[in-house]
Amino acid sequence: MASSDGNNRSTKRSNSRKRTIEIKKAEAPNKRRNTFSKLKLGLFNKVIELSILCNAKTAMIITSPDEKLYACGYPNPNIVIKHFFDKENSAIDTEKRKQDEDTIETLRLQLETIQERLKEKENNLQGVKETNKNSSCLPSWWGHSIDDMTLESLQQFKTSLKKLKLNLAASLEGKEIHMNSSSSSTSNII
Protein backbone atom coordinates (compact mmCIF):
# COMPACT_ATOMS: atom_id res chain seq x y z
CA MET A 1 0.00 0.00 0.00
CA ALA A 2 2.84 2.30 0.75
CA SER A 3 4.20 1.84 -2.71
CA SER A 4 0.85 2.68 -4.30
CA ASP A 5 0.68 5.95 -2.30
CA GLY A 6 4.11 6.84 -3.68
CA ASN A 7 2.87 6.21 -7.18
CA ASN A 8 -0.21 8.32 -6.58
CA ARG A 9 1.89 11.20 -5.31
CA SER A 10 4.15 11.09 -8.34
CA THR A 11 1.09 11.00 -10.53
CA LYS A 12 -0.42 13.97 -8.74
CA ARG A 13 2.82 15.91 -9.01
CA SER A 14 3.03 15.34 -12.72
CA ASN A 15 -0.61 16.35 -13.11
CA SER A 16 -0.20 19.50 -10.97
CA ARG A 17 2.63 20.86 -13.09
CA LYS A 18 1.76 23.57 -15.57
CA ARG A 19 1.47 22.50 -19.11
CA THR A 20 4.03 23.89 -21.46
CA ILE A 21 2.81 24.89 -24.86
CA GLU A 22 5.10 24.76 -27.81
CA ILE A 23 5.48 28.29 -29.15
CA LYS A 24 5.02 28.46 -32.89
CA LYS A 25 3.15 30.68 -35.28
CA ALA A 26 -0.48 29.75 -35.79
CA GLU A 27 -1.06 29.13 -39.45
CA ALA A 28 -4.84 29.64 -39.59
CA PRO A 29 -5.92 33.31 -39.36
CA ASN A 30 -8.90 32.51 -37.09
CA LYS A 31 -6.72 30.54 -34.69
CA ARG A 32 -4.16 33.38 -34.73
CA ARG A 33 -6.86 35.94 -33.83
CA ASN A 34 -8.23 33.75 -31.02
CA THR A 35 -4.76 33.11 -29.61
CA PHE A 36 -3.95 36.83 -29.76
CA SER A 37 -7.19 37.75 -28.01
CA LYS A 38 -6.72 35.21 -25.20
CA LEU A 39 -3.04 36.02 -24.60
CA LYS A 40 -3.74 39.75 -24.76
CA LEU A 41 -6.34 39.43 -22.01
CA GLY A 42 -3.93 37.32 -19.95
CA LEU A 43 -1.17 39.91 -20.33
CA PHE A 44 -3.50 42.75 -19.43
CA ASN A 45 -4.62 40.88 -16.32
CA LYS A 46 -0.98 40.37 -15.31
CA VAL A 47 -0.22 44.07 -15.84
CA ILE A 48 -3.13 45.11 -13.62
CA GLU A 49 -2.22 42.45 -11.04
CA LEU A 50 1.38 43.73 -10.95
CA SER A 51 0.14 47.29 -10.50
CA ILE A 52 -2.18 46.42 -7.63
CA LEU A 53 0.17 44.04 -5.79
CA CYS A 54 3.27 46.23 -6.08
CA ASN A 55 1.63 49.65 -6.10
CA ALA A 56 3.26 50.27 -9.49
CA LYS A 57 2.08 52.47 -12.29
CA THR A 58 2.05 50.40 -15.45
CA ALA A 59 1.17 50.77 -19.10
CA MET A 60 1.24 48.27 -21.93
CA ILE A 61 0.59 48.88 -25.60
CA ILE A 62 0.02 46.01 -28.00
CA THR A 63 -0.45 46.11 -31.76
CA SER A 64 -2.59 43.35 -33.18
CA PRO A 65 -1.83 41.53 -36.43
CA ASP A 66 -4.61 43.67 -37.92
CA GLU A 67 -2.63 46.82 -36.91
CA LYS A 68 -5.10 47.77 -34.15
CA LEU A 69 -3.69 49.28 -30.96
CA TYR A 70 -4.68 48.01 -27.53
CA ALA A 71 -3.55 49.70 -24.33
CA CYS A 72 -3.83 48.68 -20.74
CA GLY A 73 -2.49 50.33 -17.63
CA TYR A 74 -3.06 51.22 -14.05
CA PRO A 75 -4.29 53.73 -12.97
CA ASN A 76 -4.67 54.85 -16.60
CA PRO A 77 -2.32 54.02 -19.50
CA ASN A 78 -2.46 57.56 -20.91
CA ILE A 79 -1.42 59.10 -17.58
CA VAL A 80 1.43 56.62 -17.13
CA ILE A 81 2.71 57.15 -20.68
CA LYS A 82 2.49 60.95 -20.31
CA HIS A 83 4.37 60.71 -17.02
CA PHE A 84 7.06 58.59 -18.71
CA PHE A 85 7.59 61.09 -21.54
CA ASP A 86 7.58 64.04 -19.13
CA LYS A 87 10.34 62.35 -17.12
CA GLU A 88 12.37 61.83 -20.32
CA ASN A 89 11.98 65.50 -21.22
CA SER A 90 12.80 66.47 -17.65
CA ALA A 91 16.11 64.59 -17.83
CA ILE A 92 16.97 66.37 -21.07
CA ASP A 93 15.97 69.73 -19.56
CA THR A 94 18.13 69.03 -16.49
CA GLU A 95 21.15 68.27 -18.68
CA LYS A 96 20.58 71.42 -20.75
CA ARG A 97 20.16 73.48 -17.59
CA LYS A 98 23.50 72.14 -16.29
CA GLN A 99 25.22 73.06 -19.57
CA ASP A 100 23.66 76.53 -19.43
CA GLU A 101 24.87 77.01 -15.84
CA ASP A 102 28.40 75.99 -16.87
CA THR A 103 28.32 78.44 -19.78
CA ILE A 104 27.03 81.22 -17.52
CA GLU A 105 29.79 80.55 -14.99
CA THR A 106 32.45 80.68 -17.72
CA LEU A 107 31.04 83.93 -19.07
CA ARG A 108 30.87 85.39 -15.56
CA LEU A 109 34.56 84.62 -15.00
CA GLN A 110 35.46 86.18 -18.34
CA LEU A 111 33.45 89.29 -17.44
CA GLU A 112 35.27 89.62 -14.11
CA THR A 113 38.64 89.35 -15.88
CA ILE A 114 37.65 92.00 -18.42
CA GLN A 115 36.35 94.29 -15.68
CA GLU A 116 39.65 93.94 -13.79
CA ARG A 117 41.60 94.84 -16.95
CA LEU A 118 39.31 97.80 -17.57
CA LYS A 119 39.86 99.01 -14.01
CA GLU A 120 43.65 98.77 -14.50
CA LYS A 121 43.42 100.72 -17.77
CA GLU A 122 41.26 103.38 -16.11
CA ASN A 123 43.80 103.69 -13.30
CA ASN A 124 46.63 104.00 -15.85
CA LEU A 125 44.65 106.65 -17.76
CA GLN A 126 43.99 108.53 -14.56
CA GLY A 127 47.74 108.45 -13.80
CA VAL A 128 48.57 109.78 -17.27
CA LYS A 129 45.98 112.54 -16.86
CA GLU A 130 47.49 113.48 -13.49
CA THR A 131 50.98 113.55 -15.01
CA ASN A 132 49.82 115.74 -17.91
CA LYS A 133 47.97 118.02 -15.53
CA ASN A 134 51.07 118.43 -13.33
CA SER A 135 53.40 118.93 -16.30
CA SER A 136 51.20 121.59 -17.91
CA CYS A 137 52.44 124.13 -15.38
CA LEU A 138 55.95 123.73 -16.87
CA PRO A 139 56.38 125.67 -20.13
CA SER A 140 57.10 123.48 -23.14
CA TRP A 141 60.09 124.27 -25.40
CA TRP A 142 57.95 124.50 -28.50
CA GLY A 143 55.85 127.16 -26.85
CA HIS A 144 58.75 129.67 -26.67
CA SER A 145 58.96 132.51 -29.12
CA ILE A 146 61.64 132.13 -31.80
CA ASP A 147 61.72 135.88 -32.43
CA ASP A 148 64.09 136.40 -29.50
CA MET A 149 66.57 133.74 -30.72
CA THR A 150 69.89 134.58 -32.34
CA LEU A 151 70.88 133.28 -35.77
CA GLU A 152 73.17 130.66 -34.22
CA SER A 153 70.41 129.51 -31.83
CA LEU A 154 67.94 129.24 -34.72
CA GLN A 155 70.39 127.09 -36.72
CA GLN A 156 70.92 124.78 -33.71
CA PHE A 157 67.15 124.63 -33.19
CA LYS A 158 66.64 123.72 -36.88
CA THR A 159 69.28 120.96 -36.66
CA SER A 160 67.68 119.61 -33.48
CA LEU A 161 64.25 119.55 -35.17
CA LYS A 162 65.69 117.67 -38.18
CA LYS A 163 67.25 115.08 -35.84
CA LEU A 164 63.95 114.80 -33.97
CA LYS A 165 62.09 114.29 -37.28
CA LEU A 166 64.53 111.55 -38.35
CA ASN A 167 64.29 109.85 -34.93
CA LEU A 168 60.49 109.99 -35.03
CA ALA A 169 60.39 108.58 -38.58
CA ALA A 170 62.78 105.74 -37.66
CA SER A 171 60.89 104.93 -34.48
CA LEU A 172 57.55 104.98 -36.31
CA GLU A 173 58.89 102.74 -39.09
CA GLY A 174 60.32 100.29 -36.56
CA LYS A 175 57.02 100.05 -34.71
CA GLU A 176 55.08 99.58 -37.96
CA ILE A 177 57.41 96.74 -38.99
CA HIS A 178 57.09 95.19 -35.54
CA MET A 179 53.26 95.45 -35.67
CA ASN A 180 53.10 93.99 -39.18
CA SER A 181 55.31 91.05 -38.27
CA SER A 182 53.34 90.46 -35.05
CA SER A 183 50.03 90.52 -36.84
CA SER A 184 51.26 88.22 -39.63
CA SER A 185 52.65 85.73 -37.13
CA THR A 186 49.40 85.91 -35.18
CA SER A 187 47.38 85.28 -38.34
CA ASN A 188 49.65 82.33 -39.16
CA ILE A 189 48.93 80.86 -35.74
CA ILE A 190 45.20 81.31 -36.11
Summary tags:
single chain; rod-shaped; mainly alpha; 2 strands; 190 residues; SRF-like; two-stranded antiparallel ribbon; 4 helices
State the gist of this model.
The chain has 190 residues and is mainly alpha-helical.
Description:
73% of the residues lie in helices and 6% in strands. The protein has 190 residues and is mostly helical. Among the domains are: 23-75, SRF-like (3-Layer(aba) Sandwich), CATH 3.40.1810; 77-138. Strands 1-2 form a two-stranded antiparallel sheet. It is rod-shaped, with a radius of gyration of 47 Å. It starts with a helix and ends with a helix. Residues 1-12 have low confidence and may be disordered.
Strand order of the largest sheet: 1-2
Residue share in β-strands: 5-15%
Low-confidence residue ranges: 1-12
Average of pLDDT: 80
* Biggest sheet descriptor: 2 strands, antiparallel
- What oligomeric arrangement do these chains adopt? single chain
In whole angstroms, the N-to-C terminal distance is 100 Å
User: Order of SSEs, N→C?
Assistant: HHEEHH
Q: Could you say which overall geometry the principal axes of the C-alpha atoms support?
A: rod-shaped
Count all strands and give the number: 2
Q: How many helices in DSSP terms?
A: 4
Q: What structural category arises from helix and sheet content?
A: mainly alpha
Task: Give the % helix.
Answer: over 70%
Rg calc: 47 Å
